[in-house]
Amino acid sequence: MVAYVFLAEGTSLPKVVKRRVNALKNLQVKCAHIEAKFYEEVHELERKYAALYQPLFDKRSDIVKAAYEPTEEECEWKADEEEELTEEMKEKAKVEEEKKDEEKEDPKGIPEFWLTVFKNVDLLSDMLQEHDEPILKHLQDIKVKFSDPGQPMSFSLEFYFEPNEFFTNTLLTKTYKMRSEPDENDPFSFDGPEIMGCTGCTIDWTKGKNITLKTIKKKQKHKGRGTVRTVTKTVPNDSFFNFFTPPDVPESGDLDEDSEAVLAADFEIGHFIRERIVPRAVLYFTGEAIEDDDDDYDEEGEEADDEEGEEEGEEENDPDYDPKVGRRAYC
């Protein structure tokens, strides 16, 4: 009689085959460790190319904050066919533009560049409050800085501000610590570098300008005498600038559900700023990158709907399908 070992799927394999499957799993663990080394080298490559991008980003910053005026040649841009105008329309548009310029003062640089980027991106605009906007008008640049060679994997987001009435800092930072190493207890879950934690910075608020706090008044009734007094309390206030004070992650790694949700959203935002916002800022300013993102999501949604419909049809036609159990999804 052949001994069988039951698998999670409800199927069975002979014991000798199960042994060989275990051997494949051990090979898979070794693959995960090689993959981890691959991502470490990718991080080194990112650092190398970040140095090549930076002069271009510095020039972008100089144009935005009016430290540099681009030449006529640098400002030439060939429009798409759909954007091209007839000579008559071009002349009319030029006259109207000159008329508007005469009516208003000549703006310096590109006013509210980063604030506009933030407002154009849903992930960031959801964080913005009305009282954040006057401060973000002073944001001049965002840079990504990678950890030095030989140091633990990490990256920092650097927010540069011009002098303003709200705080004395000219630089606010947020650092994300990463790990590219399979978990010993669950090596098969490895899917590239993970953000393990983040640290913010102290904002030196000008007196009375700290928008991350608000003052509320509460009435309290004395238990014995029945008299009522008004107590003033300072409580946290919703603000984008809470981004720089993330929850502390204890050494045990245990967090309550609220803190976990805050950190998960924080990691997503930090990664998005690093991967998309900083490299393509001008396209988020104009809205062109938003259109591309929307197109991508529409296509994925349509594909997902089609696949879902096909799977539902297959399940309904499968005599062994149990709707209470369902099927495991593999990727």
UniProtKB/TrEMBL annotation:
Residues spanning the membrane: none
Stretches with biased composition (Acidic residues): 75-86, 289-320
Superkingdom, taxonomy of origin: Eukaryota
InterPro entries, per database record: NAP-like_sf, NAP_family
Annotated family: Belongs to the nucleosome assembly protein (NAP) family.
Location in or out of the cell: Nucleus
Organism: Salmo trutta (Brown trout)
The keyword Nucleus is annotated on this UniProt entry: yes
Protein name: Nucleosome assembly protein 1-like 1
Stretches for region Disordered: 75-106, 289-331
Basic and acidic residues bias: start-end ranges: 87-106
Keywords assigned: Nucleus
Pfam families in alphabetical order: NAP (PF00956)
One of the GO biological process terms: nucleosome assembly
GO cellular component: nucleus
Secretion signal span: none
Encoding gene (name): NAP1L1
